[in-house]
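Tutorial, part two.
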Amino acid sequence: MTNLPRQFHREEYKRPTQVRETLVKTLYSPERVLIVDDEPSILDAMAEAIRILDYSVITAKDGDEAWQKFEEEKPDIVVTDVRMPHRDGLTLTARIKATRPSCPVIVVTGFGSEEAAVAALKAGASDYLVKPFQLSDLRQAVDRACSLHRDKWADECVVSVVDDVRCTLVIDNLPERLGSVVNFVLRSFPGCLSDSHVLGLRVALQELLMNAIEHGNLHITSDEKNHALMEDTYDQLLHERRKMPEYRHRRVRLSYSHDLTRGVVEFRIIDEGQGFDWQAMLGRDANQLLTMIGSGRGIFLVRTLIPNLSYFGNGNEVALTLTHKIVQ
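Running the prediction step on this input gives:
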């Protein structure tokens, strides 16, 4: 892309007035955007486009200069071409993400080089553009990256002033909504939990909440569930149990607390069922649990992901506890 394309003309990419006014009113300072490209005409055009959007712009003509300016200027967002002399965009992206994982990186690739975009995304890039692109595409990509940066900044501000978080959710017996519930809960731990912790908690919470609804509140046995799944009548079974007088008012309580000063997170799930012989279940070894049908396999999975698992009373209350690095 050696010639400046038509879509880089200034009059074609003015930000809508209402969007500009919204940004003027925000309490955030303008984001600092580092633009990297070895073609001067393209570099100048992109830089001007970003300045029009009320961002502060830093430019670099190759990967080495970009890394120097990244260290010196500490930009909030980086837009980089992939193919450049001295240090290519993929290497630059990987080094940026290793140094400052929260910094969004947008990579720019040539037409027919989509595999480079995929490699960049794997290296940690948050978005990519393919040349030749419209300035509206560049604008949207930078705005998305700006939103990521601002969300991260807001999360860090909250974490820095909050010592303790406690919440209780009362959940209806709707297994199909559990994914949304878990997503809502995990958003309460911004910047504190590692990716492995988040993944483990997502699976463990969904498994334990499902057990609480099916086997606890609705008293669906493993045999009943397996039979319904084989006959494709599982949804009908759930509907019938939810309507039965002895079950329809039961709810699952999910409580969680987060002590940020100690880096301790605890979840408690309580159903209104009869419970089960959890001591015998936890006393079995891994091979026995793996060969079981029903909740035994689920408990094995949860214990593998989150080892600190505890049951109480008759088994209708379970707690998960994990620790994380204390956020300074």
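The two ends are 46 Å apart (CA to CA). In part three we will examine how such features are distributed along the chain.
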